[in-house]
Structures are given as structure tokens and as C-alpha cells.
Amino acid sequence: MLTGELVRLRPAEPEDAEAFYRWHNDEEVMRWLQSYFHQSLAGLRKLFAERQENSFEKVTLCIETLEERKLIGVVAMREADPINRRAKVDIYIGEREYWGGGYGTDALRRVCRYGFETLQLHSIELTVVEENERAIRSYEKIGFQVDGRLRQAFFRDGKWYDELLMCVLADELS
Ligand SMILES: CC(C)(COP(=O)(O)OP(=O)(O)OC[C@H]1O[C@@H](n2cnc3c(N)ncnc32)[C@H](O)[C@@H]1OP(=O)(O)O)[C@@H](O)C(=O)NCCC(=O)NCCS
Q1: 36 vs 166, more confident
Q2: 161 CA distance to ligand 1 centroid (A)?
């Protein structure tokens, strides 16, 4: 378990499936996330029950508030490359009332610190749709910088959007 200033990060459990099902069906939450097909609650329950334990290649952690231990989101570090010591990260807060409260930023900072200090990564990267200003601001706050632009990489409701490739190096995390 990892502890930040506002959140606690813990492995996913089968009973978390219900919350994920709710978040996946919330259009506002999924606005800038890749989601093509709606999953059934039964499918999600099965996925969670059969989920592989966390490993160097993929670490998925549920985000809980530190005080009430309320499940509010998820953060995942994936595709860790042991030679170049790079990994990708994804995050979302599914409980909308917690947006803008610093919880996502705290969770991302904590998981990046774990990546750098424990897994000995050198860089961590993510992609974000350019219109997702709140997310970009959150990532910049902890040291992510824009390293590139993926033109028309995200398609939603008949429109193409550019994605920004953002990275943070081990000595840049703030
Ligand atoms: C992106 C996300 C993880 C950020 O976590 P968070 O806890 O909400 O972020 P914070 O509260 O720490 O910071 C948000 C920052 O953006 C700013 N912000 C909020 N709305 C904004 C907007 N519309 N435009 C620009 N900045 C905005 C806030 O003022 C804050 O900056 P500040 O601390 O300098 O004032 C979370 O909002 C989320 O999960 N959103 C929905 C799903 C999503 O977009 N996931 C990311 C996909 S790449």
C-alpha cells in the first residue's frame, strides 16, 4: 500500500467492480478516456476476480481518500521497460465530486515516486487529449512536460483530437 498526503493506493479487489461499472457508465468521467464498448457488470466482476497480481510490468492501484477510505479512482503503471527504465501511466478519478480537490495529483505523484524510487524507473510518460485542461494542469504541477504531439490520435463523436505526449524524468518529479 502506498500513502500520499490525501490518498491511499491499494491493490484492486473483486468487490471494486461495482464502482468501476458506475464510472465506466458516466459519460463525463469517460469524456477524454478511451472507451469503445460498454462492459457488463458480470464481465467486470469476472475480470476483477481473475485479475493478475501486480508486477513490474503492470501495477494497478485503487485510489482511496486517506481519511474516509472512500474508493474514488484508479491509477495504473504499465508496459514498464527494464532496459530503458520507462513506463506509461494512466489515471482517473471516477467520483466526480472529488475532481479539483488535489486527489488525482497526489495519487499520480505517489505512484510516480514509487516508480522512480522502488522500481528504479528513469522516465514515466502518459498521453492526454489536448482539450483536457484540468488533467494537463494536474500533470504539469508534478513535473510532467509536453514532449510531443500525436496529431488526430483521439476520435470521439465524429471529431478528431490531438493528444499530447507528456513525460517526467526521475529528477524532475515535484
Ligand atoms: C485529471 C485528474 C486525474 C486530475 O486530478 P484532480 O485531483 O482533479 O487534479 P487537481 O485538483 O490536483 O488539479 C487540477 C488543476 O487543474 C485546474 N483546473 C480545473 N479545471 C480546469 C480547467 N477547466 N482548465 C484548466 N485548469 C483547470 C485546477 O485549478 C487545478 O490546478 P491548481 O491546483 O493550480 O488550481 C482528474 O480530474 C480526473 O480524473 N478527471 C477525469 C478523468 C480524466 O480526465 N483522466 C485523465 C485522462 S488523461
Answers
A1: 166
A2: 19
